[in-house]
Amino acid sequence: MAEYILQLSWMLPRIPADVSYDRASLACCVLGPSFSAFEKMGVDSVSTVLITGISPVGFGAITSARFRGGRKSMANGTCTQQMGADTVVNPFEDGALEQLMDLTNGIGADAALDCSGQVKAHRLCIDATRRGGKVAFIGQCGEETPLRVSPDRIAKGLLLMRVWHYNLNLFLSLLKVTQKSPLLDLLVSHTLPMSKIQQAIEISASQQSAKIILHPWE
Predict the structure, then answer these.
(1) Is residue 193 part of a domain?
(2) Where are the beta strands (DSSP E) in 59-187?
(3) Per the domain annotation, does 97 fall within a domain?
(4) Which of 1-10, 11-20, 138-147 has the lowest mean pLDDT?
(5) For 47-90, how does the pLDDT look when each residue is reduced to its tens digit (9 = 90+)?
(6) Domain encompassing residue 110
(7) Does the pTM exceed 0.70?
(8) Is 58 within the bounds of a domain?
(9) How many structural domains compose the chain?
(10) Residue 47 sits in a domain of what CATH number?
(11) Measured distance CA(171)–CA(148) in Å, rounded
(12) Apex CA 177: angle with CA 176 and CA 180, to 5°?
């Protein structure tokens, strides 16, 4: 929450002149982890993608998936279809897995990404992904998610991976999302000066916001 942070110069790639500070900031935790995960999972225009955990990071994941041309995006939560998710499913409702399987003709998603850190969402990603599919986790979790080696890894052949932000080699590719995606304005719900940081924290705690941007120079 500091106005200035000391960092190694090689870790600070230059922002292009045609990208605003606000948009460039979205290349951090809003878009970065999901962009990196989809890169590792090879998500493209023929992929069906499941995203769990619709928070600012989850909104960023929908944006990343749509930018990569994902054929169908399925998400849990509300207010996501405006961002381009084809289908919205509540993972805590009975029958959520069955809904997802029906939507994919019984095959399952090609790739799944959890942004929530919730055990139930983890299992939904694992169970709703097709044989030979890929699952990535970017949401921090304080509980142990049950993993069944035989049915999950051996029988289904799932590739499970964790992602922590992105490699700097992806920076220029990631910036293309901030420059070209029509969904960027939907990722930010509040822009406040640093002097109103307490208000920003309260808005965030209400869970009634997308990303909140603070301007240190105001």
Answers:
(1) no
(2) 72-75, 87-88, 109-114, 129-137, 159-162
(3) yes
(4) 1-10
(5) 999 999 888 898 899 999 989 886 566 666 545 666 767 788 87
(6) 32-162
(7) yes
(8) yes
(9) 1
(10) 3.40.50.720
(11) 36
(12) 80
